[in-house]
Amino acid sequence: MQDVLKAWEGMGYYARARNLHKASQLIVNEMNGIIPENYSDFIKLPGAGDYISAAVLSLAFDKPYAVVDGNVKRVISRLLRIYAPVSSSSSRKIFHEKADLLLDRSKPGAFNQAMMELGALICRPKNPDCNACPVASFCLAFKTNDQAKFPVTIRARETPEYHISVAVIFKNERVLITRRKSDGLLGGLWEFPGGRRQEGEPADIACIRNIKEKVNLNIDNLDFITHVNHAYSHFKIQVDVFQCRFKSGRVALKGPVDYRWIFLAELENFPFHAAHHKFIPMLNDSHEDRQI
Ligand code: SF4
Questions:
Q1: Which residue in 67, 81, 182, 270 has the fewest CB atoms around it within 10 Å?
Q2: Which pLDDT tens digit goes with each residue over 34-72?
Q3: Does residue 50 form part of some domain?
Q4: Is the domain of 116 the same as that of 239?
Q5: Residue 155 lies in a domain
Q6: Are 167 and 143 contained in the same domain?
Q7: φ/ψ of residue 132, rounded to 5
Q8: pLDDT of residue 255
Q9: What CATH number is associated with residue 168?
Q10: How many domains are contained in the chain?
């Protein structure tokens, strides 16, 4: 699994890598290496929902399942002037039914790809290129010239932002890294230990507190290295990074599931999440410059 995450590193959506790996193992070990071609079996594979199942079965096996992604919903909402909000769960059934009605059952794979491409290249979110559109003659929004009203959306909630303090803890020439639990956010990836700041808490104090809580170590000689911002798909983080010295204690994990004391040169052997890649290149220099 760590090899898969290392190869996937930096691309985000790590649950997809984990699920792909689990599904591959299941197919090889329990299905004689044969990918199921029917919907009810395929959708049981880890990570396979409606979208993945319809996409794989129609594109790989020409099975008659309509793919419904954001691009397809936008096209359908304009073609049929659908006022139901594309992002609400209550309208999911409407878009699936319409997509199913439109599907060309003689060439479902080609049809699904064409719909997705139409949404991505022609029926774009802003400024759809209706003059170049192959389905303009039966597009209701084009006829009424109100393409801009569709798709109807509901205002997205504001993306949460978290303030994190992270410690690069040196014990002699090695630093401590920890691994996140396998499922959940950024699951299975490695990171320097740390955690969220509480309201009004100074970043260095938050760092000392989190290190005690998460890995049971006492640290001192905190030296601020840098501040990085990073946006993930569902949240943003602001990270204060400190270099510090191991003072006392024995590692006991609360949250992380594994740890290593490694040399900086070994960092490249472990998959880290994207925010860490913004400051890892600074560590060699900062360590040499600021001998603790
Ligand atoms: S005619 Fe315009 S609005 Fe209608 S599907 Fe084509 S690009 Fe989209």
A1: 182
A2: 999 999 999 999 999 999 999 999 999 999 999 999 999
A3: yes
A4: no
A5: no
A6: no
A7: -100, 5
A8: 93
A9: 3.90.79.10
A10: 2
User: Which domain, by its residues, includes 220?
Assistant: 161-289
From 72, 117, 137, 147, the mutation candidate for ligand 1 (largest count of ligand atoms within 8 A of CB) is: 147
Helix, strand and coil content of the chain, in percent to the nearest 5, comes to: 45, 20, 35
Q: Which of 79, 80, 129 to mutate to test the pocket of ligand 1 (most atoms within 8 A of CB)?
A: 79
| Residue at 220 is within a domain | yes
Which stretches of the chain score pLDDT less than 70? 284-292
Q: What are phi and psi of 52, to 5 degrees?
A: -60, -45
| Assessment of whether the complete model's pTM goes beyond 0.85 | no
Q: Are residues 115 and 190 in the same domain?
A: no
130 Cα to the center of ligand 1, angstroms:
5
Show the DSSP H helices in 136-216 as ranges.
140-143, 203-215
Give the dihedral sign, CA 81/82/83/87. negative
Phi, psi dihedral angles at 31 (to 5 degrees):
-125, 25
In a domain, 156, yes or no: no
